[in-house]
Design brief:
Blueprint: H1 4-11, E1 22-26, H2 31-41, E2 47-53, H3 58-71, E3 75-81, H4 87-100, E4 106-109, H5 128-148, E5 155-159, H6 184-205, E6 210-214, H7 233-249, H8 253-265, E7 292-295, H9 305-314, H10 316-332
Parallel strand pairs: 1-2, 1-4, 2-3, 4-5, 5-6, 6-7
Helix pairs in contact: 1-8, 2-8, 4-5, 5-6, 5-10
Amino acid sequence: MVSYKEIKASNALINESTAPRVAVFVGGTSGIGKITIEALVATGTSIRIYLIGRKCSSERTHAFIQGLQAISPRAEIIWTEGEVSLLAEAKRICEVVAKKESRIDLLFFTTGYAPFGARTETSEGLEITQSLAYYSRMMFILCLLPLLRKAEAPRVVSVLGGGMERGNIDLEDIDLKGPGKFGPMKAQMQYIGMNTMVMEKLASENPDVTFIHSWPGWVNTGNVRRGLDPNSMMGWVIWLFIEPLIGFFSFSDEESGQRHLFQCTSAAFGGRGVPWKGKIGVNTMGKQEDGLFLVNYKCDCTPNVGAVSALREKAQGKIWVHTQNVLRQYMQEG
């Protein structure tokens, strides 16, 4: 485990040469995204952040932005409204950013929530939690890769469940549309495996970009109840039992923000960023440079060799082809 003392010492070294200049936070209006933005702005470096969220969060986010600018007037926060569960909207937002920027240093994802409710599709025919946790994220990565490649030490951090992959996922019904296929555990494991496989592929093709699939551990963001009727039996169970349990075991917001800031900036993952004298992280290919790093809540790399190797051999190609087929019509538009 990387101690909190070591985390804070590393983050204290963030300066103009090691901090991201341009960052895109997809899902930064609450939870881990929000507290990571706070930690990043508090470094006092010159940064421009595109904060992407839904219309319903606009009012409280503007108040949040005002608070951030009071912390550091050197931070420019650009509120970018959009419903990113829709791939057409994700593509539109990417185009907005691409028209304004010549490079992106950091792309950070926290979109999504626990799939405890019934299977619910967006207007584009995708299950909403799968779109948020996977398809939308891949759309942003693929569309913004050209700008990431132009940065000096670009990084993509996807917060979901890196290191928790299982060696098999449903390749016959990748979107879990069949009767009885969709359920909280199976859906979450499906999304985690898909994220890791495609991010690993993209990392191998873009060695100058550091990719991190992060598992935040227990963090009480409230997302575990999102999508549920608060008066349902499951809603009451989560409120009475699961959320108090999460609160008991979770890091404080401050520590979680600092740990994710460390993942965004430290050379512990891939050798680029804030100099690091501690243990160097190992990627999914067993190497210390480039590639995809599976990072847990302790900021340790957990390559999960057995499961990831099995997925790489049996599932990676099929997941990639399926993903291309889903995204193709949106990638070609405009």
